[in-house]
């Protein structure tokens, strides 16, 4: 078992990132507002005309309704993962922000925890903004869809932890292309996002179920469509298990990287 | 040990740091008294920064004992760190934040209250002569302003011990003097300071006591003037383009000198006498008498080889 050196001071690290975010929020708000518009236009209007409706959980639903929650899930994954890879790496390596923090009464565990929770927060902010746009098209079913916000935070935390593990081990910033190409992109394409998993061969479905985005998409789609089903509980447990595994791993590896 | 005014602020005993087979700090022992400016000098790779990092809890030590404020560092590192201010060698200012935000955010890492932070920041901005730059982007500050802001930031928690790792490296002479006068003000207020530097004039001017380190060990310890007296003498004679006959002359007089080929450096207790003798002879040109400095001590003890 590892012992965490953690006080509530991690909030100060979160706060630091929030101060920076507030300075540039106008720019930060644009992608989550525009991205769903682009995707819905391209996939919904363009592709959706060819696809029509999709069989999902025994029901026929319009293609745009099918992909809208997946767009949110993808955004949750990307915001958190990018925050704790590229953005954290820049703070750690180029700006020496962590070195500065470690000369104060902050522990490595607190610095990293603050960063991870900030990644999760960014996912939640992005989700909130996307919900505004997608709701305008009537593609979310309320009040169930409100659960997207806590799911965004949880899913964001899961991907933030995965990103931080990468940050702890990459030698240079270019190496992040590897986990993005091998981990993020396959999930983006095959995680039940743009077509139902049941279209895949059985073995590929099994592989997809070992990956976190698949479960995050399940959760987002489940609460957005208004039907809470028991299998969502498995997806939730999967994400909790993922965090229980990758959070301590991120802490241990970051200690190894930062404490010299 | 409990803390009394007589307790040394820092007491390091046999500090060691090994990285695999490499020993960065090889058993150093020193104490820093309350109110003094203590210098840590040495060429590159001497172990200065590693020693400092062990002091402020950034680097875990391999062995040895370390007490700050009369308390063992292992137990209450958080309390100890809240009483220290650190100016790191690298610029760790937050480029994403403005001048005032840098101070504010940093103060919050110490859990300082909003009200206390407000007055503290106003004072520090005035102290650092940055009050007209409150909302400036730190990326646009000059080297001297950056260093003053780093110093102001290190003082945000009203530390009892200020640690400065090469505070004036890369600054122009004006900025160095600006920073020095601020450090002298702080010293006059009774702040204890630990300083590492490559600049001997800086150490001579600021330090009450210092140690010279090389290859992870402490070579000598003392006040700058004591060290100069003990290891060089009061004066130094430099002889440019020396001929062989002067070498013979010095050897006959059994005077210690360093032979750099194109230049001889003579360390002699009675420098003036020898100097008069030399210039009355054939060495009128290219012979120079000057007061001995800490740099002479440093070079004499650590040698003239490059450390890269």
Describe this structure in words.
The complex is a heterodimer of chains A (260) and B (308). Helices cover 74% and strands 3% of the residues of chain A. The two termini of chain A are 22 Å apart. Chain A has helices spanning 10-23, 25-51, 63-94, 97-101, 108-136, 148-169, 177-190, 202-209, 212-225, 231-258, and strands spanning 53-56, 59-62. By secondary structure, chain A is mainly alpha-helical. In chain A, helix 5 (108-136) packs across helix 6 (148-169). Chain A has a two-stranded antiparallel sheet. Chain A has ten helices and two strands. Chain A has one domain. In chain A, a hairpin with a 2-residue loop joins strand 1 and strand 2 (59-62). Chain B has 308 residues and is an alpha/beta fold. Chain B has two domains: 10-225, Rossmann fold (3-Layer(aba) Sandwich); 234-291, Alpha-Beta Plaits (2-Layer Sandwich), CATH 3.30.70. Chain B contains eleven helices and 14 strands. Chain B has helices at residues 48-55, 77-81, 99-109, 114-127, 143-154, 173-188, 200-206, 224-231, 244-252, 271-280, 294-302, and strands at 10-19, 22-32, 37-41, 63-68, 71-72, 84-87, 161-165, 192-197, 209-214, 217-222, 235-240, 257-259, 263-268, 287-291. In chain B, strands 6-7-8-3-9-10 form a six-stranded mixed β-sheet, with helices on both faces. In chain B, strands 2-1-4-5 form a four-stranded antiparallel β-sheet, covered by helices on one side. The two termini of chain B are 41 Å apart. The interface between A and B is medium-sized, with 23 and 29 residues.
Radius of gyration over C-alpha positions of chain B, nearest whole angstrom: 23 Å
- The neighbouring-strand order within the major sheet of chain A is 1-2
Give the largest chain-chain interface (CB within 8 Å). A-B, 23 and 29 residues
| Gap from first CA to last CA of chain A | 22 Å
Alpha-beta classification of chain B: alpha/beta
Number of domains of chain B: 2
**Average residue-wise pLDDT of chain A:** 93
Order of helices and strands of chain A: HHEEHHHHHHHH
User: What quaternary form is this?
Assistant: heterodimer
Reading the helices and strands of chain B in chain order gives: EEEHEEHEHHHEHEHEEHEHEEHEH
Tell me the name of the CATH homologous superfamily of the largest domain in chain B: P-loop containing nucleotide triphosphate hydrolases
Between the first and last Cα atoms of chain B, what is the distance in angstroms? 41 Å
CATH architecture of the largest domain in chain B: 3-Layer(aba) Sandwich
- The average pLDDT of chain B is 90
The CATH topology of the largest domain in chain B:
Rossmann fold
User: What is the beta-strand fraction of chain B?
Assistant: 25-35%
Label the overall shape of chain B: globular
Total domain count of chain A: 1
Count of DSSP-assigned helices of chain B = 11
Q: Approximately how much helix is present in the residues of chain B?
A: 25-40%
């Amino acid at each position: 078992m590892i012992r965490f050196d953690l006080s509530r001071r991690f909030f100060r690290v979160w706060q630091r990132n929030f101060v920076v975010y507030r300075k540039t929020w106008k720019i930060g708000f644009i992608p989550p507002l525009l991205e769903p518009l682009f995707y819905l236009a391209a996939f919904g209007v363009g592709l959706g005309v060819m696809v029509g409706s999709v069989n999902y959980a025994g029901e026929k639903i319009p293609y745009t309704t099918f992909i809208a929650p997946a767009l949110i899930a993808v955004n949750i994954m990307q915001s958190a993962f990018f925050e704790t890879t590229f953005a954290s790496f820049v703070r750690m390596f180029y700006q020496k922000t962590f070195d500065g923090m470690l000369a104060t009464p902050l522990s490595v565990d607190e610095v990293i925890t603050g960063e991870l929770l900030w990644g999760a927060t960014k996912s939640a902010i992005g989700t909130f903004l996307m919900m505004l746009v997608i709701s305008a098209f009537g593609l979310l079913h309320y009040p169930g869809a409100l659960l997207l916000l806590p799911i965004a935070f949880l899913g964001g935390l899961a991907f933030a932890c995965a990103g931080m593990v990468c940050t702890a081990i990459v030698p240079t910033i270019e190496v992040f292309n590897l986990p993005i190409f091998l981990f993020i992109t396959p999930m983006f394409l095959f995680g039940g996002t743009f077509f139902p998993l049941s279209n895949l061969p059985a073995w590929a479905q099994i592989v997809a179920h070992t990956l976190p985005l698949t479960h995050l998409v399940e959760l987002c789609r489940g609460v957005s469509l208004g039907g809470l089903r028991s299998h969502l509980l498995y997806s939730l447990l999967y994400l909790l298990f993922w965090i229980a595994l990758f959070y301590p791993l991120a802490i241990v590896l970051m200690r190894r990287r930062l404490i010299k | 040990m409990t803390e009394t005014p007589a307790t040394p602020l820092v007491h390091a005993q046999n500090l060691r740091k090994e990285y695999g087979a490499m020993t960065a700090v090889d058993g150093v022992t020193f104490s820093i008294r309350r109110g003094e400016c203590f210098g840590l000098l040495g060429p590159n790779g001497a172990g200065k920064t590693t020693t400092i990092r062990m002091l402020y809890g950034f680097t875990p030590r391999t062995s040895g004992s370390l007490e700050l404020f009369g308390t063992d560092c292992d137990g209450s590192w958080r309390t100890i760190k809240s009483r220290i201010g650190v100016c790191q060698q690298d610029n760790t200012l937050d480029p994403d934040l403005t001048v005032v935000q840098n101070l504010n955010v940093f103060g919050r890492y110490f859990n300082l209250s909003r009200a206390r932070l407000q007055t503290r920041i106003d004072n520090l901005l005035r102290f650092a002569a940055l009050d007209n730059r409150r909302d400036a982007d730190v990326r646009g500050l000059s080297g001297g302003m950056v260093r003053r802001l780093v110093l102001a930031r290190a003082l945000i928690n009203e530390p009892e011990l200020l640690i400065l790792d090469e505070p004036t490296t890369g600054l122009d002479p004006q900025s160095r003097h600006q920073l020095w006068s601020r450090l002298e003000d702080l010293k006059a207020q009774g702040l204890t300071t630990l300083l590492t530097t490559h600049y001997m004039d800086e150490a001579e001017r600021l330090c009450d006591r210092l140690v010279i380190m090389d290859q992870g060990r402490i070579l000598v310890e003392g006040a700058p003037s004591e060290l100069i007296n003990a290891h060089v003498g009061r004066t130094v004679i430099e002889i440019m383009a020396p001929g062989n006959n002067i070498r013979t002359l010095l050897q006959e007089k059994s005077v210690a000198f360093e032979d750099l080929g194109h230049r001889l450096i003579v360390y002699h207790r009675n420098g003036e006498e020898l100097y008069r003798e030399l210039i009355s002879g054939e060495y009128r040109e290219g012979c120079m008498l000057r007061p001995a400095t800490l740099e002479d001590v440093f070079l004499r003890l650590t040698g003239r080889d490059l450390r890269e």
